[in-house]
Amino acid sequence: MQRPRFVLSLTTKDNDFQIAQAEAAAQAANRLGVDIEILYADNDAIQQSQQLLKIIQSRASLPDGIILEPVGGTGFPQVARAAAAAGIGWVVMNREIEYLADLRRDYKVPIFCISSDHEEIGRIQGKQVAALLPNGGSVLLIQGPAESAAAQNRLVGFQEAKSPSVQVKVIKGNWTETGAYKVISSWLKLSTALQTPIDVVVSQNDAMAIGTRKAFEEIANPALRQKFSRLPYIGIDGVRTTGQEWLKRGLLDATIVVPPNSDVAIEMLAQTVKTGVFPPEVTLTVPKSLPSIAELAKRPVHKSHAAGAN
């Protein structure tokens, strides 16, 4: 029997979680005897759709399945239909897609979604902030791209779980350390930025938290630079070699461990190819706070640490 062949399409190489997705996928493919081709879209939705269409339209050697984490918010319904029509399985990661039900009805190929529970991730981050700021305060939140459903859902969960007495200033990033560094550096040039009260820096992933910290470390005024450096920084992803390592080194005060789901996607798709039994339309993975909410509650933030405090 010919080895199954899958294509994994990821958003960028410049993000530790995406790198972890690639590593987890490669390990799963090796364990299961699956051939895997990994593509990166450089955070460009057009590039990602063109990469996938090129594979789908190449009749010489079609893969058994395509697994993708979409750039942008659409999930590429036309590309998905083209893949299904060509007999290629279609698996979407980290996005709940409305068109999946129609495709599952119309085509007899595996079509499903496996996602982190982004609203629950946001709720955990809101609880982390509530533990750190039991008496309320102000946070600077670095959000993912506006068109990202993951970023939107994480914000919904965060707003739901945070205390009403916590005020939030939102700045949008692009999931990368470099992108957050640039956007925060630009924001710091505004005359009002350094007067903004901040008790906790919240980022929707660990990479953006580190980029934000680096931008703050370049503030010219020594006193303000020290105030910003003393703030708690919390992120999301908790990759062992980056987020968890930054936590150990004191660069982060908390993260949320989000398990990679590319390996689970490959396992589910390989099992479907082998047995013909299709998985459910949506499967959600379970995140967890690191350290625990109870542990964070033992070290609340004093509001005198706020960057805008006198």
Characteristics:
310 residues; 12 helices; 2 domains; 4-stranded parallel beta sheet; alpha/beta; 6-stranded parallel beta sheet; Rossmann fold
Overview of the molecule:
The protein is of the alpha/beta class and 310 residues long. The chain has two domains: 5-116 and 259-286, 3-Layer(aba) Sandwich (Rossmann fold); 118-256 and 292-305, Rossmann fold. The protein contains twelve helices and twelve strands. Helix 6 links the parallel strand 6 (137-143) and strand 7. Helix 1 (16-32) runs parallel beside helix 11 (262-275), helix 5 (118-132) runs parallel beside helix 6 (149-161) and helix 7 runs parallel beside helix 8. The protein is elongated and about 65 Å long. It starts with a strand and ends in a 14-residue tail after the last helix.
Number of helices: 12
| Fraction in beta strands | 15-25%
Molecular shape: elongated
CATH class category of the largest domain: Alpha Beta
| Share in helix | 40-55%
Instruction: Say how many strands there are.
Output: 12
What about the largest sheet? 6 strands, parallel
Mean pLDDT: 93
Question: Secondary-structure map with pairings?
Answer:
Blueprint: E1 5-10, H1 16-32, E2 35-40, H2 45-57, E3 65-68, H3 77-85, E4 89-93, H4 100-106, E5 111-116, H5 118-132, E6 137-143, H6 149-161, E7 166-172, H7 177-187, E8 200-203, H8 206-216, H9 222-229, E9 233-234, H10 243-248, E10 255-257, H11 262-275, E11 282-285, E12 288-290, H12 293-296
Parallel strand pairs: 1-2, 1-3, 3-4, 4-5, 5-11, 6-7, 6-8, 8-9
Antiparallel strand pairs: 10-12
